[in-house]
Design brief:
0% strand, binds zinc ion, RNase H type-1 domain-containing protein
């Protein structure tokens, strides 16, 4: 049995921090499944800079989700008084008169 410095997930590259967090093909699948768009143009960034970029992207996604949730809650809680003519057409068994 020999000890290797290759990544245990893919076995293609040495197990560096950059590889573990960014460049491993197995890790890229995880990032993409979480909704992060990984760009080759970001590959020149240092790991701390790249992590800040990911953090900003995560905050942006979280903000969008919070706004959507707030809108959905607003839509759910908003009740509009139906027109009187509409109410008279709906019977108690939820069927609508022709
Ligand atoms: Zn790997």
């Amino acid at each position: 049995m020999t000890e290797s410095d290759l990544c245990p997930r893919c076995g293609l590259e040495p197990e560096t921090l950059d590889h573990c967090f960014r460049f491993c093909p197995k890790v890229k699948i995880i990032w993409r499944s979480l909704g992060f768009g990984l760009s080759d143009t970001d590959s020149h960034l240092t790991l701390p800079c790249w992590l800040r970029l990911i953090q900003r992207e995560a905050n942006s996604v979280a903000d969008s989700m919070a706004k959507e949730a707030a809108m959905a809650q607003h839509d759910y809680l908003e009740w509009i008084v139906p027109q009187p003519s509409l109410v008279s057409l709906i019977r108690m068994d939820s069927s609508v008169l022709p």
